[in-house]
């Protein structure tokens, strides 16, 4: 009798745990990008690659992104001012970036994204920051004329915003390039419900579901940094990720 009672008790506990588990899953599916509280997952279809992600606020990557955001906001103000008065614009870097924006504005949809991706890929010389991994604002990158992968992605976000693409349709995605064996950053733009990857390593844009060489790690959106769930990234001693601070956020 005692054994039977114990069995029924354990069954009750398991049923209760199952109800709690399913309730948690339902809450996760109902989560939104900017939901309050730590560790809230977004809807599976909300972000590039359709993978669950949760907000993080500590570690090297959020620190880099939040520090850059102030510079990015300042650049957007200066670019808007120069956009409205080209003759009195004192920034050659702003005028160079705005020339790309002008071309993008003459196109629509996928052509606008592709034009921006191609033009910025050609305008910036690829360099490796090495261990310093400095994240530069768009005007700093165009003034220098060179940048790392994240600098391309940041500049593309600024150009697309000025060209009329909504902020909620733009992301920076940190991935692991499985072919190169290193971390990599790309811009992502949503068009007609599909996410396109704007990569400085290729002129052609690829939809996230067709980007077989990408393992998504983190996604950056306005004032939020999210970490994809279940990423098994492990850097070996042979790997030299250009985004040196990615490992700090694991």
TrEMBL record:
It holds the Pfam family Peptidase_C93. It comes from the Bacteria. This is Transglutaminase-like cysteine peptidase.
């Amino acid at each position: 009798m005692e054994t039977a009672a114990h069995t029924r008790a354990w069954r009750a506990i398991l049923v209760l745990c199952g109800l709690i588990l399913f309730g948690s899953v339902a809450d996760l599916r109902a989560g939104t990008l900017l939901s309050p509280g730590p560790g809230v997952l977004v809807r599976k279809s909300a972000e590039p690659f359709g993978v669950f992600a949760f907000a993080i606020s500590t570690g090297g990557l959020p620190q880099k992104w939040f520090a850059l955001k102030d510079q990015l906001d300042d650049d957007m103000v200066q670019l808007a001012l120069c956009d409205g008065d080209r003759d009195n614009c004192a920034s050659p870097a702003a005028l160079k970036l705005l020339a790309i924006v002008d071309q993008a504005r003459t196109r629509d949809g996928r052509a606008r994204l592709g034009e921006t991706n191609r033009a910025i890929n050609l305008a910036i010389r690829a360099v490796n920051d090495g261990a310093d991994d400095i994240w530069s604002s768009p005007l700093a990158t165009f003034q220098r004329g060179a940048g790392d992968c994240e600098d391309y992605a940041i500049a593309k976000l600024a150009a697309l915003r000025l060209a009329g693409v909504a902020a909620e349709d733009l992301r920076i995605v940190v991935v692991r390039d499985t072919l190169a064996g290193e971390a990599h950053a790309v811009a992502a733009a949503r068009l007609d419900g599909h996410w396109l990857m704007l990569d400085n390593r290729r002129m052609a844009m690829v939809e996230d579901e067709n980007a077989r060489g990408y393992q998504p790690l983190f996604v950056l959106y306005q004032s939020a940094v999210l970490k994809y769930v279940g990423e098994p990234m492990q850097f070996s001693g042979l790997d030299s990720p250009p985004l040196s601070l990615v490992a700090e956020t694991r």
